[in-house]
Amino acid sequence: MKNSNRNQALSESAVNFDPIYQQILLGSDGKTRFGTFQNINGAEPLEGGGVRIRYFAPGAKSAAIRGIGGSMDKTYDLLPLENLPGYFGADLCDISPGFHYCEFLTDGVVAMNPCFPIGYGCGKAMNFFEVPDPEFDSYLLKDVPHGTVHREIYKSRLTGRWRTALVYTPPGYAENSEKRYPVLYLQHGGGENETGWIWQGKIDFLLDNLIAEGRAKEMIVVMESSAAFLENQDGSFAMGDFPKVLCSETIPMIDSRYRTIPEKEARAMAGLSFGAAYARFTVFSRPDLFSSLGVFSAGLRYKTPGADPENPTVISYDFSNLFENADVFNKSIRLLYYGFGREESGIFDPDTTHLQKMIEAGYHISYSVFPGFHEWDVWRKCAYEYLQKIFKWQV
Hints:
Blueprint: E1 22-26, E2 32-37, E3 43-45, E4 51-56, E5 63-68, E6 75-80, E7 87-92, E8 98-106, E9 109-111, E10 118-121, E11 124-131, E12 148-155, E13 162-169, E14 183-187, H1 196-199, H2 203-212, E15 220-224, H3 242-257, E16 267-272, H4 274-285, E17 292-296, H5 326-332, E18 335-341, H6 352-360, E19 365-370, H7 376-387
Parallel strand pairs: 14-15, 14-16, 16-17, 17-18, 18-19
Antiparallel strand pairs: 1-2, 3-4, 4-7, 5-6, 5-8, 6-7, 8-9, 8-11, 10-11, 12-13, 13-15
């Protein structure tokens, strides 16, 4: 894509849409102040690959940036910039294309760079940056019709808490007032929340582009927190009553507020990592509600050894009846899609041999293996493949 290094999707985050180009100046009195707008970008992709880092840390003796995730597993020292007082920086040319969570260190203390994109990940507000992928640009902002992301707030009777969901509606939703749409329920991973698929995953741009190219059906996408703890519980990340909340409260709420097709054939669910485990459990336990399941970077286990008395948050389940044979499975599930990164074996062990045997036996299963680690660039590609496969059976 032409000028992809300057694409606004690369810097879009929870706190900014355009890159933050305002220069921070260090005055003679030692105090900081904002200057005129200058072309000083915290993370600027380099034309030949890699990224140029700029970090304002006046008075610091040392500064560094370290990656979080397999594709950026080093800490890089940043050097003072003589032409920019108070700034540290470096050109990192060995950073692979894709998405990278990162942290900054000021004299060894973890800090954030306000001139970097910010999202919620790893259980906290996190900096991240992007190195454009020359072989995958479908998540970038393009000159096509764009959908709308809404925020829905509703009270859960089951948990006693208010809940929030982000809802993507496709281009033309407001104008086509008689048209109804299938719905994908899309879950985030552990340590993340419902904002992840927007700010990090760029799911709205992915769908905008796929719909414009005629490669995906128009659909509504619902992104909700996977946490469903009770009002008197802490915010620990555990499944709790999430499947019950989703099936008995979220789905009826979405069907009442949006022009959905409120039937099994027009409803799918997917998730990444921890969210994939939630999606898997929900769909396998309620195949009457969902026609399709997408599992991104998680195991495909449909039976647990049993309850763990030492850990009551572990749920015991057995969905072996769904997998009795291909005919039984296919009557319940139109499609099971499985996607993961080639370098993820340290997190879980995908058994592609077993998957291939099931496919050859006639199960409605497909899978993809992408280069990469347990990171957003892999999950975007999983979503890209899955979005093109679902709801094709809808008239």
